[in-house]
Amino acid sequence: MPLRSSPVSAEILPGLHLDSRRALWLPASRLLVVADLHWGYATTHRARGNLLPMWGDEELATALTALIADYQPASLLWLGDSLHALAGRAPAEAFIAASPVPITLIAGNHDARWRASTLTFLHLGPHFFHHGDSPPAIPAGALEIVGHHHPSFLWWDGAGTRLKVPALVAGPRRLILPAFSPWAAGTPWNARLAPDETLWAVTPKRVFAIAPIRPPSASIS
Predict the structure, then answer these.
(1) Is residue 139 a part of any domain in this protein?
(2) How many distinct structural domains can be found in the chain?
(3) How far is CA 22 from CA 46, 145, 202, in A?
């Protein structure tokens, strides 16, 4: 199916496409997957006395709406940590109520006490989805698809310039999705890759695999 706004994407494994907006597309099942949205991040922090700008929820809604328009999925899957905390649930619930496609919610560690999120995993064909904070038993031969870790790629030029971008970790047995939240800083994954894994950097105009590269200091964050 042609995409109306021509987003950038790459097929990272057969039948699995990574969109530059940090979403995973499975065309065979017409499933669109995002992880770690952290709805209500600013609201939650402001309720705790941290006066962050009221930003992020509208950006989440805009990005999801554009993805739905482009891919016309049969369903969406939010792969855990849909909320940052229960105090920020209102915009998430409003989006779910207005969504033109059904949304399946997998519970993450940040979703405690949110009654809308009850599933702990979803086994769909060869793919086994869960949040990643407390791994269940993985069915034999299934590809594990998780969030939770907020992977990123860290680049530096040796002269003081450093750049960190969201990333996806792809291996023969596991995928770790980038965080969908615009607030997510990301955990550098350069030195964490297993020998059989590939790190895919995600930028607004390019999705690309990178060769193994280690940061100059373990203290970089």
Answers:
(1) yes
(2) 1
(3) 26, 14, 7
What values do phi and psi take at 60, rounded to 5?
A: -60, -50
For residue range 108-146, what is the model confidence (pLDDT) as tens digits? Answer: 999 988 999 989 999 999 999 999 998 889 999 999 999
Tens of pLDDT, residue by residue over 82-110, are 999 898 899 999 999 999 999 999 999 99
Q: Would residue 4 count as lying in a domain?
A: no
Q: Which residue has the tokens 């940052």?
A: 84
CA 156 to chain centroid, in Å, comes to 24
Domain for residue 18, yes or no? Answer: yes
DSSP category for residue 108: -
Distance CA 211, CA 97 (A): 42
Please name which of 21, 3, 35 lies closest in space to residue 205, comparing C-alpha atoms. Answer: 21
C-alpha torsion sign, points 195, 206, 186, 28: negative
Claim: this prediction has a pTM higher than 0.70: yes
Residue 119, judged by CB atoms within 10 A of its CB (0-12, 13-18, 19+), counts as: middle
**Which bin fits 94, alpha (ψ -120 to 50), beta or left (φ > 0)?**
alpha
Full domain range(s) for residue 83? 9-210
Helix (H, G, I), strand (E, B) or coil at 66: helix
Q: Establish if 1 belongs to a structural domain.
A: no
Report the CATH number that the domain containing residue 199 is assigned in CATH.
3.60.21
**Number of helices (H), then strands (E), in the chain:** 3, 15
